[in-house]
Amino acid sequence: MDHYRVKQMFESIAFSYDFQNSFLSLGQDILWRRTLAGSIRVPREGIVLDLATGTAELAIEICRRHPEMRVAGLDFSPRMLAIGQRKLRAKGLRKRIDLHLGDARRLPFKAESFDGATMAFGIRNMEERNEVLGEIYRVLKDRGRLWIMEFDCPDPPVLGRLYRLYFDRILPPLGNWLSRTDYAYTHLMRSVHRFPGENEFAREIAAVGFKILGVKRLALGIAKIYRAVKA
Fold it and tell me: Considering its fold, how many domains does the chain have in total?
């Protein structure tokens, strides 16, 4: 699915995006974001760039876990960001989180602006991954850290087969019904299957200049956090 259609898809499902994620993952998405936010290691008063920030759930969790940190969230969906802005007002976080409308392939920030960068379940929707990773590298300070969380298939073979049954056969029609579309969660399933495996994606990250620090597996490998540093 091209960039324009992906954007239109997120615009159309924004109204219930948070509920869909939590319902279909049985609440695991909340735990995964907490894990990612808790693993962030940047200067105490540092600033983190959260790409594909959506409704700002990860940005808010980062600020909750790190009281002196600031976050710049960027997304290409105005409707998702509008929901995020309402959350920030309700939680009193507008001075700590700035939300920006923009394209991860051409970040509207100066070089070496951020101490760290995060992206949760966003990069598989971006066909130009090399451009996006290169832009992240550009805007990170020297020794800046990167955390990318993405879906994968569980490592144990038996669990993997059961998960594929749910992910391929049950989740797409159920998710499409919840999102009032006939394609959003079919796209999710296909995008995860198209995404490179752990070793290949780690090589893509390293190819733009990052040094891989490790990969943390969540829920036996259903989700993975790739950690890297600007070398």
Answer: 1
56 DSSP assignment: T
Map residue 152 onto helix, strand or coil: coil
The string over 86-112, giving b where at least 16 C-beta atoms fall within 10 Å of a residue's C-beta and e elsewhere, is ebbeeeebeebbebeebbbbebeeeee
Specify the long-range contacts of residues 59-63, CB closer than 8 Å, at least 24 apart. 59/84, 59/97, 59/99, 60/87, 60/88, 60/91, 60/93, 60/97, 61/33, 61/34, 61/36, 61/37, 62/37, 62/118, 63/93, 63/96, 63/97
- What is the domain-level CATH number for residue 66? 3.40.50.150
In a domain, 61, yes or no: yes
Distance CA 214, CA 198 (A): 11
Name the pTM for this structure: 0.93
In this prediction, residue 173 carries a pLDDT of: 92
Which range marks the domain in which residue 54 is found?
A: 3-151+196-230
In this structure, is residue 176 part of a structural domain? no
Which residues of the chain register pLDDT less than 50? none
Residue 207 falls inside a structural domain: yes
Q: Looking at the domain assignment, is residue 125 inside a domain?
A: yes
**pLDDT for residue 120:** 97
Residue 216 dihedral angles phi and psi, to the nearest 5°: -100, 125
